[in-house]
């Protein structure tokens, strides 16, 4: 089974309309490396975002992990739409996760596991990656989690 099918089997909508909150590209390609802009969990059909709020405040760990998974799903949709599919991905190199956190909340790594777990589910061993999980005061559009990614892809 290819990565494309694995993502769809994991419930990822690879064709969701992507949300841009600024003047930037969702994916920048330099040679065989893809840099994917910070992504947030999109509502079904792309009509907005989900999981608005702060971890340690109005959102609990499970909602944060769901938000991180949703952000990773948006990343996969960005890669799919840029490449025309996921099967050229050689590996996930790095994820950086930002978690809107109330003071005293320090489970950012557990939150970002929601994104990491999806990458490993879709790509298997090629989904293992380096990672940072960072607590921040606010994120765009009130999102609870934002994740950015770097992928290595096979040459055309």
Can you describe this structure?
- By secondary structure, the protein is of the alpha+beta class.
- The protein has one domain (3-153): 2-Layer Sandwich (60s Ribosomal Protein L30, Chain: A), CATH 3.30.1330.
- It is built from three helices and five strands; from the N terminus they run H-E-E-H-E-H-E-E.
- It has helices spanning 3-9, 61-83, 108-123, and strands at 27-30, 33-39, 89-100, 130-136, 145-153.
- It has a five-stranded mixed sheet.
- Strand 3, helix 3 (108-123) and strand 4 form a beta-alpha-beta unit.
- The protein is globular.
- The chain starts with a helix and ends with a strand.
- The model has no long low-confidence stretch (mean pLDDT 94).
Can you lay out the helices and strands and say which pair or pack?
Blueprint: H1 3-9, E1 27-30, E2 33-39, H2 61-83, E3 89-100, H3 108-123, E4 130-136, E5 145-153
Parallel strand pairs: 3-4
Antiparallel strand pairs: 1-2, 2-5, 3-5
Helix pairs in contact: 2-3
Helix content: 25-40%
Overall pLDDT confidence: 94
For the record, the CATH architecture stands as 2-Layer Sandwich
- How many DSSP H or I helices? 3
Distance, first to last CA: 21 Å
Structural class, please?
Answer: alpha+beta
Whole-number tally of structural domains: 1
Largest sheet: 5 strands, mixed
Order of secondary-structure elements: HEEHEHEE
- Can you list the strand order of the major beta sheet? 1-2-5-3-4
* CATH fold assignment: 60s Ribosomal Protein L30, Chain: A
Query: Strand fraction band?
Result: 25-35%
Residue stretches low in confidence (pLDDT < 50, at least 5 long) are none
Please count the beta strands (DSSP E, at least 2 residues each): 5
Shape: globular
Q: What is the radius of gyration computed over CA atoms, rounded to a whole number of angstroms?
A: 14 Å
Look at the structure and give the CATH class: Alpha Beta
CATH H-level superfamily: RutC-like
